[in-house]
Amino acid sequence: MGVNISNSYLARTVSGHSKPGKETLGTVSGTAAERVVARILQWGWDEADAVIHALDDFPHPDASAGVIKKYHNKIANIPFFTLNPSRELLELTICANYALVKLAQQWHKNSVSVNYLEKISMPHLASIYGVMLAGGDYITMWAGIPIGIPAIFQDFLEGKEGKYTIPVSGSKGGYTMRFNPKDLFGDKTPDMKAPHFLPIVSTDTLATILSKKIPGWITGFIVETPQAGGHNAPPRGGKSEYGERDTINFDRMRDIWLPYWLAGSYASPEWLKKAHNLGAVGIQAGSIFALSEESGMRPDLRTKILEMAYNGELTVATDWHASPTGFPFKVAQVPWTLSDDTLYTTRTRMCNEWVLRVAFERQDGTIGYRCPGEPTAVYKIKWGDSDDTHGVKCLCNGLMGTAGLKDEIPIVTLGDTVREFVMALLSEPDDSYSACQAIDYIFWNSSPASSQ
Question: What pLDDT band is residue 45 in, cutting at 50, 70 and 90?
Answer without folding.
Answer: confident
